[in-house]
Structures are given as C-alpha cells and as structure tokens.
Design goal:
The complex is a heterodimer of chains A (about 120) and B (about 180). Chain A is of the alpha+beta class and about 120 residues long. Chain A is about 45% helix and about 25% strand. Chain A contains three helices and five strands; from the N terminus they run αββαβββα. With about 180 residues, chain B is mainly α. Chain B contains ten helices and no strands. Classes of the chains: A alpha+beta (about 120), B mainly alpha (about 180). The structure holds protoporphyrin IX containing FE. Protoporphyrin IX containing FE binds next to helix 4, helix 5, helix 6 and helix 7 of chain B.
C-alpha cells in the first residue's frame, strides 16, 4: 500500500515532464525505497551514491555555515541529477535531461519529496 | 574449549577454524618442551624487527621490555586456557598497537614469522611426534585467532576519520563498499 503510494508519486513526477528521465526514493543509509529508473541504471549503485552525495552536501553546508541542506544538484553535459531530502530518513533523487526548466524541476521534485515524506512518517 | 563470547563473528571464526575442547590438552602436553625455547625465539623475532627500516624505529629503546611482554604472550598460547581472559587480552593487545600506531600489516608479518618458525620448533623438540603434529595445528589456529582479535581493533581506524569528515554513516559506508558488487 505504502509502496504503491510512493511508486505513484515517482511515476507522477516522471510523467510531469518529458525531460524527467527517472527518479528514486532512497533511505539515508543508501537503500532503495522505491524507484522509477530507466533500464540500464544500476539501482543498487545509484542508491548508495546518492545517499553519499547528500551526506557530503550536508556536511559541506554545515561546515561553511550555509544552514540546513536544501538540495544537491549535479549538472552534466546531458542533464541534471537533483537530490533533496524527503523527510529525515529518505532522499529523493530526480534525473532530468538538459532541456528541463530548472525552476519547474525544483518545484516538482520538492512537491514529490514532501508527499513521499508524509507517507514515510 | 568452549568459546566464551557472544560476538557472532568470533563465534563463526571459532566454529570454522575448528578450535575445540581437545586443544587445551594438546597445548598443555607440549608446554614443557617449548617454554624454555621461547626466549630464543623471541630474540630472533626482535632481531628481525630491529633490522627492518620500517619496524626498527617503532621498537627502538624499548626492546628489553617488549621482549618480556612478547615472551609472556607466547607462553599464554601454550597455557591451555583460551577463555574470556585470553580473548580480552588479545583485544587489549590490539588496542595497544593501534594506540602505538603499529600498522596492522606489521602485526600480520610478525604472525607470519611465528607461523613459519613455530612448527619446526615443535617438530624438533617435542618427543611425541603425534603430539607435535596436533600442537602445530592448534597453534596455527590460535595464532589466527589472535590476529583476528587484534585486527578487530584496527577496524574502522583508517576509514573512521575520513567517513566522519564526509558525513557518511557506518551503515552507508557498508552500502558503498558492497553496492553493485556481483558476489
Ligand atoms: C605477533 C605480533 C605481535 C604480538 C603478539 C605483540 C604483542 C605485544 C604485547 C603483548 C604488547 C604489550 C601490550 C600491553 O601493554 O598490554 C605489545 C606492545 C607493543 N608492541 Fe607488540 N606485538 C606484536 C607485533 C608488534 C610489532 C610488529 C611491533 C612494531 C613493529 C610491535 C610494537 C609494540 C610496541 C611499540 C608496544 C608497546 C606499546 C605501548 O606500550 O605504548 N608489536 N606487543
């Protein structure tokens, strides 16, 4: 039931824009909670890496007195990876193409993260 | 000999390596032959440590005292008592070496020296050949047990500081180490 709800949040997020390729909800320990990834993406590896990126981001923000971490954004030639907290114990990772409007990505991902966090608590 | 520990990894180590009740008897039976030879073996061990450019500075100025502790430790292998006190002593030795910043590879090399040297000492000096053979097996297991216990003190010492700086929890570190591996 809970899994279905989270899965729906992810598929809705992916469906919200043709430029969102994939998304996953991951525990802060790096375990996949639910994912809507593209074929060929290694769920196991991505989950551990994403949780590590978030931890690093948190530590860096704290070290440089930037307050609580809001997001980690990775920008590559082919697109973006956006990592944001979904409550205290989970992380939402959204993988998008280069053409996406960043403002839209932030809004959609934040909304999805909030909805997922509400289900997890 | 019964293992007196609730540590599941130690229980598995004990079970798989095959330490059992008979080992106490086996080691006590050869103790009288080996005890007088331990100081000579210890001298040989410290001579090697003193000639290696990496280990020599670590023992400089304290060889006499280290030899005494080493002799006592070697004797404890032949005492036939491998209960809770023996186990906690190995852990304590590990902690002392971590504090003294002795790299675990040097401890491993020393164990290797002993594994190489002690079977010959047993074979050459124990009158009962079967007894020597049995004691060799037990001794090698005990050396591995000691190394296993000493090594546990090093667990995490290399990665703790780094992972703490990166904000990576022990659980996430374990995930990172195994994620995507096809075992
Ligand atoms: C088979 C491997 C080894 C065993 C069984 C062993 C055993 C011991 C024991 C029983 C002690 C006394 C612990 C205590 O105070 O409670 C000790 C201390 C010490 N060992 Fe070893 N040792 C080994 C290898 C080495 C090596 C390779 C080095 C250096 C190259 C080394 C250097 C030291 C030093 C410096 C101390 C004193 C530490 C201190 O009191 O600050 N050990 N060792």
């Amino acid at each position: 039931m809970r899994e279905d709800q989270i899965r729906t949040i992810l598929t809705d997020l992916n469906g919200g824009s043709t430029d969102i390729d994939a998304s996953a909800l991951i525990s802060t320990d790096g375990l996949i909670i639910s994912s809507a990834l593209s074929p060929g993406m290694d769920e196991d590896r991505i989950s551990a890496m994403v949780a590590a990126m978030l931890s690093l981001g948190e530590r860096t923000a704290a070290e440089l007195s930037r307050g609580n971490l809001e997001q980690v954004m990775i920008s590559g030639a082919q697109g973006y990876v956006l990592i944001i907290h979904a409550g205290n114990d989970a992380v939402l990772c959204t993988i998008a193409g280069k053409a996406i409007k960043l403002g839209l990505l932030f809004i959609d991902a934040s909304r999805a993260a909030k909805a997922a966090a509400a289900i997890l608590t | 000999m019964q293992l007196q520990s609730t540590d599941p990894n130690l229980q598995t180590f004990w079970h798989v390596c095959g330490l059992d009740k008979d080992d106490e008897r086996v080691m006590r039976a050869v103790r009288g032959y080996i005890q007088p030879l331990i100081p000579r073996l210890t001298d040989a061990f410290y001579e090697i440590l003193a000639t290696d450019p990496q280990t020599a500075p670590l023992i400089e100025g304290r060889v006499a005292q280290l030899k005494r502790t080493h002799i006592a430790w070697l004797e404890s292998l032949f005492n036939g008592d491998y209960g809770a006190a023996f186990i906690s002593r190995q852990r304590q030795i590990g902690a002392v070496h971590v504090r003294a910043k002795i790299p675990p590879t040097f401890v491993a090399a020393s164990m290797s020296f002993l594994r190489g040297a002690l079977p010959d000492v047993l074979a050459a000096n124990v009158a009962d050949k079967d007894g020597a053979k049995a004691a060799t097996g037990t001794l090698l297991r005990l050396l591995d047990l000691c190394q296993f216990l000493i090594d546990r003190s090093y667990d995490g010492t290399l990665s703790d500081g780094l992972m703490n700086n990166l904000g990576i929890s022990p659980a996430l570190l374990a995930r990172l180490q195994t994620a995507g591996k096809k075992f």
